[in-house]
Specification:
InterPro entries: Ig-like_dom, Ig-like_dom_sf, Ig-like_fold, Ig_sub, Ig_sub2. It comes from Mytilus coruscus. This protein is an all-beta fold. It has 1 helix and 28 strands. A hairpin with a 4-residue loop joins strand 11 and strand 12.
Length: 313
C-alpha cells in the first residue's frame, strides 16, 4: 500500500478546521468494497459499494399508541448495491420480510393494535456487502386490566384481611379505595412482576365490628383510563350472633337471628334445650342476605324453651 500526501511520509500533519486529502492505492484482486479507511476502531470510508445505512423515521426513540389504533413505521436506507432483502422483527420474532431491486422506503403497517404488540421493533436491510439495522420501541397504551372483577377474602374481627390483586398495565399505575363497609383501610402497595406488564397490588382491611364485613371497592388508574374492582370480606371461623328478635303470637313464635358466618349458603341448625341438653329439631327456616335467618316455632308442639343457635355460654 502506498500513501500519497503532501509530506511524502506515513505521518500527515493537519490543522484543525482545514481540509486535507489522503490518497490510497493498492494492487489487489479483491472487490472495491473490501478496501476501506479505518480511524482507530471505526470504519470511516469504503473504497466501493457499502452496506445499507438504515434508519426508522421517528420523532423519538419511543412511539406511544392507544390500543386498537393504527401506526405506519417507515424504514429508510441508503446503499449503492441492489438488490436488498429486508425484514421486520418484533421482540426478536420475524413479522415481515421481502426483497427490493431499487431504492425505496420500507413500510410496516400496524392496524387495530393490541397490548401484545408492544415492544422493540427492528428493521434489517441486507445486500451482498452486509446488513444494516435500526430499531424503535412501540408502547401500546391501554386501561388497567384485572384478572377478576371481584376478589374475596376471609378474616375475623380485629384481624387484618390481606388483599392481593393482580393487574396488567403498560405503565405503573395508582390505586385508591372508592367505597367501604366501614373497616379500617390500609395503604396500597404496587409491585411490578419482573420484566412484565403485570403488577401485584397489596393492602389490608381490618373489620372492627360485624357491620364491617361486606363489599369494598378499589379503583386502578393509569394515563389511559381506570377500572374498578370489588373486594368482598367474609367472616371466617365459627358463626357469631349479632342480635336476635322474637315475635310472640298466640300459638306461634317467630324468631329472627342476625349472624355472620363463613358458610353463607347453608341454613343454620336449630335446637331445643331440654334439661341442659340440646336436641336438633326440624323447622321451616330461611336464610337471606347472607346473614339473617328467620324461623317459625309452634310452641304448643314443644311447650319448651327455644335455644337460639350461635349463643354460647
Amino acid at each position: 500500500m502506498r500513501v500519497i500526501s503532501q509530506y511524502g511520509t506515513g505521518v500527515v500533519k493537519v490543522t484543525e478546521n482545514e481540509n486535507t486529502s489522503l490518497n490510497c492505492s493498492i494492487d489487489s484482486g479483491n472487490p472495491l468494497e473490501d478496501m476501506m479507511w479505518i480511524r482507530g476502531n471505526e470504519t470511516v470510508a469504503y473504497g466501493g459499494p457499502v452496506i445499507p445505512d438504515v434508519e426508522i423515521a421517528k420523532e423519538s426513540p419511543v412511539v406511544n399508541l392507544h390500543e386498537e389504533g393504527s401506526l405506519k413505521l417507515q424504514c429508510q436506507y441508503d446503499t449503492n448495491v441492489h438488490p436488498i432483502t429486508f425484514k421486520w422483527m418484533r421482540n426478536k420474532r420475524l413479522i415481515a420480510n421481502g426483497t427490493m431491486v431499487s431504492q425505496q422506503s420500507i413500510h410496516l403497517l400496524l392496524q387495530n393494535v393490541s397490548r401484545e404488540e408492544s415492544g422493540s421493533y427492528r428493521c434489517y436491510v441486507s445486500n451482498r456487502i452486509g446488513t444494516g439495522m435500526d430499531e424503535t420501541t412501540v408502547v401500546i397504551n391501554y386501561k388497567p386490566h384485572t384478572l377478576r372483577a371481584t376478589y374475596t377474602c376471609n378474616t375475623q374481627l380485629m384481624n387484618p384481611a390481606k388483599i392481593l390483586l393482580q393487574v396488567q398495565s403498560f405503565e405503573k399505575h395508582i390505586v385508591m379505595w372508592i367505597y367501604s363497609s366501614g373497616g379500617a383501610l390500609g395503604i396500597w402497595g404496587v409491585t411490578r412482576m419482573k420484566n412484565s406488564s403485570f403488577f401485584i397490588l397489596s393492602s389490608d382491611i381490618v373489620p372492627r365490628q360485624a357491620e364491617h364485613f361486606g363489599i369494598y371497592g378499589a379503583r386502578v388508574r393509569n394515563s389511559a383510563g381506570s377500572i374498578d374492582t370489588e373486594v368482598n370480606v367474609y367472616q371466617s371461623g365459627p358463626p357469631f350472633v349479632v342480635n336476635t328478635s322474637i315475635l310472640f303470637d298466640r300459638w306461634l313464635s317467630i324468631i329472627s337471628v342476625y349472624f355472620y358466618s363463613k358458610s353463607v349458603n347453608n341454613d343454620p341448625v336449630w335446637f331445643l334445650k331440654i334439661n341442659n341438653s340440646e336436641h336438633e329439631i326440624d323447622v321451616e327456616s330461611n336464610t337471606s342476605n347472607q346473614s339473617t335467618s328467620k324461623t317459625a316455632i309452634r310452641m304448643e308442639k314443644y311447650g319448651l324453651q327455644v335455644n337460639i343457635p350461635g349463643v354460647y355460654n
